[in-house]
Amino acid sequence: MTLLILQAIASGVVTGCVYALIALSLVIVYKSTDVINFAGGEIVMIGGYAGMLALLYLGLPYILIFAFAAIATFALGALFDRIVLHKVLGRAVPGQSILVAMVIATVGLSYVLKGGVRVVPYTEEVRRLPPFFTGEPIFIGPVVVQRQDIAIIVVAVVVMAALWAFFSLTLTGKALRATSQNPRAAALVGIPVRRMRMTVWGIASALAAIAGVLLAPKLLMTPDMGVIVILAFAAAIIGGFASLPGCIIGGILLGVIQNIVGLYVGSNAISVAPFAVIMLILALRPQGLLGGRVAAKKV
Amino acid sequence: MLELSGISASYGAIRALENVSLSVAAGRIVCLLGANGAGKTTTLNCISGVVPLTAGRIRFEGEDITGWPIDRIVARGIVQVPEGREIFPELTVADNLLLGTWLRRRKGGAARDFERIYNYFPRLRERARQPAGTLSGGEQQMLMIGRALMAQPKLLLLDEPSLGLSPLLVQQLFGIIARVHADGVPILLVEQNAAVALAASHHAYIIENGEIRLDGPARDLEQNEEVKAAYLGA
């Protein structure tokens, strides 16, 4: 039994790393623009299909497939912000919140992407990408881990480290954080706030796309695979929807919870687990596991 | 060097400024005094490009900058220190200062500017690695001025720097403002604390209900009966 639990934890950590990437994508958009991105899951899906097209048409190796998907979705996210959200913001009436309109715009984007992708060949049937690595699984003690899963963890950790370095070591990263903490003050030192928002949308979309390419060999790809975003929402909420380390812990915790639930309660309960986690956290500890106070955002 | 001629501005249907003209000559400290809601902050925000004008022109060093976006105006050399505690609370004090150099980030030379700012505000050097949100109100005010100076402004706009500070701190702060000015930065100062502002300035304007009521050398206004009664509490 212990072995089963260890095995469940190990594979939970793998999927949890992917949930964490998607959660990071949602939270950095929320922190810097106050918008909850309901198209997050569809951007994951687009990333997966972009990876598939790069493989089928261009025959790229995996490292370039990641780059291709990330760049394509960076452009997608930045353009959505520039073309749609800027327009919505521009119609703001002083004293009235424009947030609802912006969130609805992201819901619109999710449908546009889902519908749009069906026009592309290869999406009418369920597919998956080939594994990154094949070969004998690796034993860590008694636990069996696929090489593929180790690759997923490595990619996720590298991406998270790069994100951390960008936000804490580069001037542009610091300017992005400054813009999210105090847009007014950022504008007054000459930081182009609008361009910063575009950049955040681009980075967040690239993160989601990398998660999509990581998932594509593991899950079946369909235009509806974006529903996975609910797991990322749960992960983000575990982190209080504000903390980036909280997203990572939340994602991994959720992956493990899912597998433990699957083990003890049954596989039918797995899909309920994230919702139960969301409700529990919101009821008992809305500020997230990492503490801090309940954020009262000034609008 | 800065000249506003007949500017007006409004928020929706509410008129905030009406035909305001004022100028700041090179090397001067000029203050704009008035009650809460008289239009002082709006005037600064018009200069910075935050609030659009409905009429009038703004010229800086002979160039018409009316309607320019904020970042272009900052790059041109007009930097505003806003009212209140407009810092980046989760970034360190040093990073807050560093972001002041954003528009000239490719030119370098930030190290020298840090040295200069830390000379004005030794407290900021001591706290360089702390998150800015942990600073006291007075220190945050100093941080905002320091951040603005990192941009190497040709003209500094100060919005209510004395707000919420103890008299001792206000005195200290105006001592530093005088030093900054002596080092060659002209200042347009907005204040409710008329006594302190007049003592620090060369020239003063008095604004009421969005219109300039009175202007003249600060010394003269200090003696003006009307000003004494309305603003100096005498």
List the helices and strands and how they pair.
The complex is a heterodimer of chains A (299) and B (234).
Chain A: H1 2-33, H2 40-58, H3 62-90, H4 99-117, E1 138-140, E2 143-145, H5 147-169, H6 171-181, H7 183-188, H8 193-215, H9 229-238, H10 244-264, H11 273-284
Helix pairs in contact in A: 1-5, 1-8, 1-9, 1-10, 2-3, 2-4, 2-8, 3-4, 3-8, 5-6, 9-10, 9-11
Chain B: E1 2-11, E2 14-24, E3 29-33, H1 40-48, E4 55-60, E5 63-64, H2 70-76, E6 78-81, H3 93-99, H4 110-120, H5 122-126, H6 137-150, E7 155-159, H7 167-182, E8 187-191, H8 194-200, E9 203-208, E10 211-217, H9 218-223, H10 225-231
Parallel strand pairs in B: 3-8, 3-9, 6-7, 7-8
Antiparallel strand pairs in B: 1-2, 1-4, 4-5, 9-10
Helix pairs in contact in B: 3-6, 4-6
Short account of what is shown:
The complex is a heterodimer of chains A (299) and B (234). By secondary structure, chain A is mainly alpha-helical. Chain A has eleven helices and two strands.
How would you explain this protein's 3D organization?
The complex is a heterodimer of chains A (299) and B (234). Chain A is mostly helical and 299 residues long. Chain A has a domain of 202 residues. Chain A contains eleven helices and two strands, in the order ααααββααααααα. In chain A, strands 1-2 form a two-stranded antiparallel ribbon. The longest helix of chain A is centred in the first third of the chain and has 32 residues. Chain A is globular, with a radius of gyration of 19 Å. Chain B is an alpha/beta fold and 234 residues long. Chain B has one domain: Rossmann fold (3-Layer(aba) Sandwich), CATH 3.40.50. Chain B is built from ten helices and ten strands. In chain B, the strands form two sheets. Chain B has a six-stranded mixed beta sheet, sandwiched between helices. A four-stranded antiparallel beta sheet of chain B has the order 2-1-4-5, covered by helices on one side. The longest helix of chain B is centred in the last third of the chain and has 16 residues. Chain B starts with a strand and ends with a helix. The mean pLDDT of chain B is 91. Classes of the chains: A mainly alpha (299), B alpha/beta (234). At the A-B interface, helix 6 and helix 7 of A face helix 2, helix 3 and helix 6 of B.
